[in-house]
């Protein structure tokens, strides 16, 4: 064969390699039903899906040759047709308090963050569901930078897959039943309920006994209050629900969270009541970011209690002292006011906690996950307008 023909063959082989890789399915994209359907589509028995699920999510294996109980012919198919590809880790930080943060590349210059928070009785992973966020909440670092796109199921599940794998490796854990991460919260970058097509299959993988085996009580979805999507989550994958509230009246909440103009508090409270019919817990968690001089008075606490009492929503409150970030123009609340607010709600009969600040030294605290996003929403312009509109109500006189 001539040298010209040899070189041509090599060029054609090199050109076809990326095409073959692009054609491979990412097994992290499939829940149990999806993986079963895919196995059947390539002529394999349905039980192969369960075997694969256990290898991928219990054993955290990405090399098909290590899946020793699979038939060699099946492994050969997998090598040609499939891959296990989590998003690439481009940076990792470790806090002095044990918190760890990963920055994942998700293509086209976008990156998202996930955070592991160790506690004495649990290990919680906070994961992202979107590159950026379109909600535009005034106090959120993620929202400040705008929105690019929804993450895929593989990109959502891949955050847990990667974190669990690295944490187990660091601790020398080899037993697939011995897990470091016991809780998953979708409270990172993005609004999970805007991405239900990818989030619901991810949740099903988290709950699958052949996958991560988490209980519904240990998976929490946080939302800014998308009413119709709350109902869809209740139907498809009811897990613990956390609602970002942050104000007890529509006037202030409109300014802090533009979504309230579309889904006001009355509609949101009704959706919470409906969700409780199928929820794994008998209460809704209301997240409440405390902003200095804005929503941190005892009168605000009284209004908050009056709201949930009037709307008949069993709940507990999680108070989150605001973490200032550049260009936020908002202030951290006084520590004594936070504690007084908490005491008042407790006195009124509501279980109330103040979220511990974790990972401050690596910018991993609540509201500070920023990643890197190529904004498609002209967020900077909209934020300037939003601040101007909000200025008349923010920093209003406070009652003691």
UniProtKB/TrEMBL annotation:
Cofactor(s) listed in the protein's UniProt record: [4Fe-4S] cluster
Among InterPro entries, the record links this protein to: Aldolase_TIM, Methyltransferase_A, RlmN_N, RNA_MTrfase_RlmN, rRNA_lsu_MTrfase_RlmN/Cfr, rSAM, rSAM_sf
Instruction: Describe cofactor binding as the record notes it.
Output: Binds 1 [4Fe-4S] cluster. The cluster is coordinated with 3 cysteines and an exchangeable S-adenosyl-L-methionine.
- Tell me the keywords, alphabetical order: 4Fe-4S, Cytoplasm, Disulfide bond, Iron, Iron-sulfur, Metal-binding, Methyltransferase, rRNA processing, S-adenosyl-L-methionine, Transferase, tRNA processing
Q: Where is the Radical SAM core domain?
A: 119-361
| EC number, UniProt record | 2.1.1.192
An example GO CC term for this entry is: cytoplasm
For this protein, the parts annotated as crossing the membrane are none
- The source's domain of life comes to Bacteria
Supply the Gene3D superfamilies for this chain.
Answer: 1.10.150.530, Aldolase class I
| Binding, S-adenosyl-L-methionine | 190-191, 222, 244-246, 323
Instruction: State its location(s).
Output: Cytoplasm
Q: One MF term from GO for this chain?
A: tRNA (adenine(37)-C2)-methyltransferase activity
Q: Which residues form the active site?
A: 113 (proton acceptor), 366 (s-methylcysteine intermediate)
Q: Which reaction does it catalyse?
A: adenosine(37) in tRNA + 2 reduced [2Fe-2S]-[ferredoxin] + 2 S-adenosyl-L-methionine = 2-methyladenosine(37) in tRNA + 5'-deoxyadenosine + L-methionine + 2 oxidized [2Fe-2S]-[ferredoxin] + S-adenosyl-L-homocysteine; adenosine(2503) in 23S rRNA + 2 reduced [2Fe-2S]-[ferredoxin] + 2 S-adenosyl-L-methionine = 2-methyladenosine(2503) in 23S rRNA + 5'-deoxyadenosine + L-methionine + 2 oxidized [2Fe-2S]-[ferredoxin] + S-adenosyl-L-homocysteine
| Subcellular location, principal | cytoplasm
Signal peptide location: none
**Binding sites annotated in the UniProt record for [4Fe-4S] cluster:** 133, 137, 140
Give the UniProt record's GO annotations in the biological process aspect: rRNA base methylation; tRNA methylation
Q: Show the PANTHER family listed in the entry.
A: 23S RRNA METHYLTRANSFERASE, RADICAL SAM CORE DOMAIN-CONTAINING PROTEIN
Q: Which family does it belong to?
A: Belongs to the radical SAM superfamily. RlmN family.
The role this protein plays is:
Specifically methylates position 2 of adenine 2503 in 23S rRNA and position 2 of adenine 37 in tRNAs. m2A2503 modification seems to play a crucial role in the proofreading step occurring at the peptidyl transferase center and thus would serve to optimize ribosomal fidelity.
Q: What else is known?
A: Reaction proceeds by a ping-pong mechanism involving intermediate methylation of a conserved cysteine residue.
Q: What is the recorded name of this protein?
A: Dual-specificity RNA methyltransferase RlmN
Q: Which organism is it from?
A: Sutterella wadsworthensis HGA0223
Higher taxonomy: Bacteria, Pseudomonadati, Pseudomonadota, Betaproteobacteria, Burkholderiales
